[in-house]
């Protein structure tokens, strides 16, 4: 009896060990239960569009942006305005996923050259590879990791440009990747840098910020109506020794600070304040207003005579800067014509891509 029992136990042990070995052998990709992956890493099919084009097409059709992808905005309006002709030289100041770049390259029809910049080394390499696979190699496209504040440098070697495009802000790949810390919706380090190799993260920035400074940042960068309450809550937490170094921790401080709001408006107010607070921090750690100002000042000098520039903005602070610069330079006779009003994506485009809703486009033509 004792020997039988011993044998059974030994067999059980062997089966367990076999199962474990089997599991290790078949280290599978992260699977999601059901048909709707919620987690970024679970969106395996969307993250591999080459292998799963049907899944990607379905997600786009539903009006969402597939994980790891960016849907370009106002493509038709941009191309109509830029009037790109084969043989021209152009600059895409914000490469991102390369959607606009690709469309502009099609207009060049293998003649001329396109230069493209981005500060984000992580996404830039992926885009370079994707475009190369599509047949856009260095003979027609030059990609540089560079801040568009330095357009004068790229113009020295490649300009003047017949056309320039800047599609400001962040790409969907950056927002959706929790490791980059751009979204209050997913847990991640509170980083928010477009180029994580430069400057300080948002968490680091908060560590030493004063209440007045944070309040000013929230008001100036995103017109936050609860700026005083949020600034007080954040700074007091940090002073008490609690680090606010993840997206979730910042969202929780905001939720706590807005507890006083009436129940029926709390949820929406928290959501909006989270969006605005993350935006304000992102603008700050990337010096977005400063680099945009520098870009706008240098823009006419890199454009050829009659050269065309189009800019897409995503919040009022950016649009104000573009509008002011274009108007002043028109008055000074540097530009011969500018858009009289903002151009907006169509209702259909906004329905298909919710991220297009806040987009404003302005353009200018060099004298
Ligand atoms: C909205 S996305 C561009 C998407 C792109 N037009 C497309 O069709 O895929 C904005 C991109 O600009 C980059 N960017 C933002 N500020 C920049 C700057 N100052 N210099 C260079 N690139 C910048 C971001 O890293 C991001 O990849």
UniProtKB/TrEMBL annotation:
GO terms for molecular function: rRNA (cytosine-N4-)-methyltransferase activity. The keyword Cell wall biogenesis/degradation does not apply. Gene3D superfamilies: Putative methyltransferase TM0872, insert domain (1.10.150.170), Vaccinia Virus protein VP39 (3.40.50.150). Keywords: Cytoplasm, Methyltransferase, rRNA processing, S-adenosyl-L-methionine, Transferase. Residues 1-24 have a biased composition (Basic and acidic residues). SUPFAM superfamilies: Putative methyltransferase TM0872, insert domain, S-adenosyl-L-methionine-dependent methyltransferases. Its EC number is 2.1.1.199. It catalyses: cytidine(1402) in 16S rRNA + S-adenosyl-L-methionine = N(4)-methylcytidine(1402) in 16S rRNA + S-adenosyl-L-homocysteine + H(+). The lineage of its organism: Bacteria, Bacillati, Bacillota, Clostridia, Lachnospirales. Belongs to the methyltransferase superfamily. RsmH family. NCBIfam families: 16S rRNA (cytosine(1402)-N(4))-methyltransferase RsmH. This is Ribosomal RNA small subunit methyltransferase H. InterPro entries: RsmH, SAM-dep_MeTrfase_MraW_recog, SAM-dependent_MTases_sf. S-adenosyl-L-methionine binds at residues 98-100, 118, 148, 167, 174. One of its GO terms (cellular component) is cytoplasm. Residues 1-30 are annotated as: Disordered. It is found in: Cytoplasm. Pfam families: Methyltransf_5. One of its GO terms (biological process) is rRNA base methylation. PANTHER family: 12S RRNA N4-METHYLCYTIDINE METHYLTRANSFERASE (PTHR11265:SF0), S-ADENOSYL-METHYLTRANSFERASE MRAW (PTHR11265). Specifically methylates the N4 position of cytidine in position 1402 (C1402) of 16S rRNA. The gene is rsmH.
């Amino acid at each position: 009896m004792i020997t039988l029992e011993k044998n059974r136990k030994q067999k059980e042990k062997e089966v367990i060990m076999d199962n474990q070995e089997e599991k290790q052998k078949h280290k599978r990709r992260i699977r999601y239960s059901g048909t709707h992956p919620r987690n970024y890493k679970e969106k395996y099919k969307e993250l591999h569009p080459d292998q799963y084009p049907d899944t990607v097409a379905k997600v786009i059709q539903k009006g969402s942006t597939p994980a790891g992808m960016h849907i370009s905005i106002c493509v038709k309006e941009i191309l109509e305005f830029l009037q790109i002709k084969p043989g021209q030289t152009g600059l895409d100041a914000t490469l991102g996923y390369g959607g606009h770049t690709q469309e502009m390259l099609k207009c060049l029809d293998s003649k001329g050259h396109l230069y493209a910049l981005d500060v984000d080394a992580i996404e830039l390499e992926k885009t370079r590879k994707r475009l190369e696979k599509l047949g856009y190699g260095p003979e027609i496209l030059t990609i540089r990791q560079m801040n568009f504040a330095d357009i004068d440098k790229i113009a020295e070697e490649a300009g003047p440009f017949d056309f320039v495009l800047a599609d400001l802000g962040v790409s969907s790949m950056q927002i959706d990747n929790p490791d980059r810390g751009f979204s209050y919706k997913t847990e991640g380090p509170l980083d928010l840098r477009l180029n994580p190799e430069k400057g300080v993260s948002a968490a680091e920035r908060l560590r030493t910020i004063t209440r007045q400074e944070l309040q000013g940042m929230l008001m100036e960068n995103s017109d936050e109506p609860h700026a005083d309450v949020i600034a007080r809550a954040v700074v007091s937490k940090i002073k008490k020794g609690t680090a606010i170094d993840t997206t979730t921790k910042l969202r929780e401080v905001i939720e706590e600070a807005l507890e006083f709001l009436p129940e029926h408006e709390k949820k929406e107010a928290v959501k909006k304040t989270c969006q605005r607070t993350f935006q304000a921090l992102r603008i700050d750690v990337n010096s977005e207003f400063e680099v945009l100002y520098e870009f706008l000042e240098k823009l006419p000098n890199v454009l050829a005579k009659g050269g065309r520039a189009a800019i897409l903005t995503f919040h009022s602070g950016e649009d104000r800067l573009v509008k002011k610069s274009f108007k002043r330079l028109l008055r000074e006779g540097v530009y011969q014509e500018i858009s009289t009003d903002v151009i907006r994506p169509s209702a259909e485009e906004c329905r298909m891509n919710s991220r297009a809703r806040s987009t404003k486009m302005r353009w200018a033509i060099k004298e």
